[in-house]
Amino acid sequence: MRIELTEEQKIVRETAREFAKKELLPGVIDRDEQQIFPSEQIKKMGELGFMGMMVDPKYNGGGMDTISYVLAMEEISKIDASAGVVMSVNNSLVCWGLEKYGTEEQKDKYLKRLASGEIIGAFCLSEPEAGSDATSQRTTAEDKGDHYLVNGTKNWITNGNSASVYIVFAQTDPELKHNGINALIIEKESEGFVIGRKENKLGIRGSDTHSLMFSDVKVPKENRLGEEGFGFKLAMKILNGGRIGIASQALGIASGSLDASINYSKERKAFGKTISQHQAIQFKLAEMATQIDAARLLCFQAAFLKDQKKDYTKEAAMAKYFASEIAMKCANEAIQIHGGYGYVKEYHVERFLRDAKITQIYEGTTEIQKIVISRELLIH
Ligand code: CAA
């Protein structure tokens, strides 16, 4: 067994690192405070191939592997976790589903523009009364022969207003329960589709999160993604990959917290020496670094299995569960190391803590990850 990155993977990591420092760091505090979506930066990420990293180049994707995706997600999220989630949703929840289950027409019409970053997409599963309990979809997609008529509300949708294309899950046949759910591609301009309130969030404030309302929205049958009634399983399969993306985002927040802590501890003096010379700080850094390496290896494991076309359900859930826990721990310790400076905006670490929290919630809470992991342990 060799744990060594290829030259190509090293280049991806370096490119993402340089981009994040040059393009995402300037203005990141303002974007967070004023909830400004990083439009220009996302466009440039598209030009670098980061918005459709694993998509086949014939659909304008980067043709890269999932390990490269983990590396790029970590570097981007280290500096700006808001840009990280926009990237993760577009790559994992939108492009991957379209490439894997879309028709050639859908790929031609939507995937090519999504993978190049020309437009971005959103994944609409959560509802006011269907978060963790995702089978309880209240949004309906009535079968009208050549089209579906969609009615309902979606909540907490990442890229809610900035997206152009939405993958929406809706119940067509309630008697079939989760086997009656369809996944539909809905365009922003569709009549009856209204973008609702923008959420005023604790963290990842540079990303836009909205509720969405559908009122008699006509969706042609050719816009169904996957077979009739396959929507819920498709959502689950998509989320397995999404969890690698969010795990990598959490990993980035954790390693950003460590970097900031190392730098600060070498500058700040207390009791006649730098605080890095105090064992209390050294032990904190050692613990953070160990947890971060463990989280990165879990992300690599899930990514490796995905690239090998093996089942990675459990491993992705483990990576997401563990990385999100250590993102919280590392961001919290980073504030402690920074003391009073850590509690104010300029040193970034208070933002890291606010950004870290959502990684324990979206794309399946920590508790849902534990359900997924334990089910896999007990079934196999
Ligand atoms: N991979 C593949 N298939 C899966 C799966 C998985 N991880 N989880 C469930 N399935 C399949 C099951 O095998 C089952 O198939 P059969 O009908 O053939 O038996 C079917 O889906 C139904 O599953 P369950 O019977 O297990 O359903 P459940 O209601 O007991 O539990 C759950 C399902 C795991 C709790 C699921 O509802 C879940 O993952 N909930 C969390 C939802 C979530 O992650 N939401 C995130 C929203 S998107 C988001 O956050 C994006 C963002 O903003 C960044």
Mean pLDDT: 97
Structural class: alpha+beta
**Number of domain units:** 3
Estimate the global geometry from the Cα principal axes.
Answer: globular
Helix and strand pattern: HHHHHHEEEEEEEEHEEHHHH
CATH class designation of the largest domain: Mainly Alpha
Based on the coordinates given, report the CATH architecture of the largest domain: Up-down Bundle
CATH topology of the largest domain: Butyryl-CoA Dehydrogenase, subunit A, domain 3
Binned strand content: 15-25%
Q: How many runs of DSSP E, i.e. beta strands?
A: 10
Contiguous low-pLDDT stretches (5 residues minimum) are none
The distinct ligands, each listed once, are:
acetoacetyl-coenzyme A
* Cα Rg: 21 Å
Q: How would you name the CATH homologous superfamily of the largest domain?
A: Butyryl-CoA Dehydrogenase, subunit A, domain 3
Determine the N-to-C terminus distance: 25 Å
**Biggest sheet: strand arrangement:** 1-4-5-8
By DSSP (H or I, 4+ residues per run), the number of helices equals 11
Helix fraction by DSSP (H/I, runs of at least 4): 40-55%
Can you summarize the main beta sheet?
4 strands, mixed
